[in-house]
Amino acid sequence: MEFPKLGCHCSEPSCKKLDFLPIKCDGCNNIYCNDHFKYNIHNCPNAYKNNVQVPECPLCGIPVPIPRNQQPDVAVGAHIDRDCKWDPSKERKVFTNKCTMKGCKTKEIIPVLCPECNNNFCLRHRHTADHNCMGFKASLRAKIYNAAVDRNLSNHPKPFLNTRAIQDQNMSEDEALARAIALSLNQEVGPQGSTQRQASTSNTNDKNKCYLS
């Protein structure tokens, strides 16, 4: 015995299967089988009317409320044009932790601090043997020494201070540091100190002279 009116064929063009428990789509009102009744599977053109979701802005990440019967793409586009607070100039850089090893330009996402010298290094130079670790005190003295030498060179490019020549004179780190600081202080005084010395010398000479009237 046949039942010609029992069941319905799936409305999906690639399926057309006879399903005895068909499902009617509440968006397009078509009949589908159990495999094609979802909105995204049969590409329902009216899915946005019933599939109530709150989309997020892809730039600022803020949820964008949309009225019913409006496509999410339209609401998100209007939000980007008018209300989006995303500022590309304030985008946070991911790789900001630069390796302090001389000659290395690698940057890491997270800081990798050496427990001995407290400097930041990349993963390649994180071990003490890889960056020739001198310890915290020696590293601090080296930083002060290099800062004094750089300040001296920037303020007085001539005469040129050869730091490598100083290191080759069998000087200890403390002696080299003291010498660099002394040179920096002497040259910071500059012409003002020499002018004051000349004025004091001229005043002394004037006092030693005898004038006859």
Automatic annotation (TrEMBL):
<dbReference type="GO" id="GO:0005783">
    <property type="term" value="C:endoplasmic reticulum"/>
</dbReference>
<keyword id="KW-0863">Zinc-finger</keyword>
<keyword id="KW-0479">Metal-binding</keyword>
<dbReference type="GO" id="GO:0008270">
    <property type="term" value="F:zinc ion binding"/>
</dbReference>
<dbReference type="Pfam" id="PF01428">
    <property type="entry name" value="zf-AN1"/>
</dbReference>
<dbReference type="InterPro" id="IPR000058">
    <property type="entry name" value="Znf_AN1"/>
</dbReference>
<protein>
    <submittedName>
        <fullName>Putative an1-type zinc finger protein 2a</fullName>
    </submittedName>
</protein>
<feature type="domain" description="AN1-type">
    <location>
        <begin position="93"/>
        <end position="141"/>
    </location>
</feature>
<feature type="region of interest" description="Disordered">
    <location>
        <begin position="188"/>
        <end position="213"/>
    </location>
</feature>
<feature type="domain" description="AN1-type">
    <location>
        <begin position="4"/>
        <end position="52"/>
    </location>
</feature>
<feature type="compositionally biased region" description="Polar residues">
    <location>
        <begin position="188"/>
        <end position="205"/>
    </location>
</feature>
<dbReference type="InterPro" id="IPR035896">
    <property type="entry name" value="AN1-like_Znf"/>
</dbReference>
<dbReference type="GO" id="GO:0045047">
    <property type="term" value="P:protein targeting to ER"/>
</dbReference>
<keyword id="KW-0862">Zinc</keyword>
<dbReference type="GO" id="GO:0043161">
    <property type="term" value="P:proteasome-mediated ubiquitin-dependent protein catabolic process"/>
</dbReference>
<keyword id="KW-0677">Repeat</keyword>
<dbReference type="InterPro" id="IPR057357">
    <property type="entry name" value="Znf-C2H2_ZFAND2A/B"/>
</dbReference>
<dbReference type="Pfam" id="PF25403">
    <property type="entry name" value="zf-C2H2_ZFAND2"/>
</dbReference>
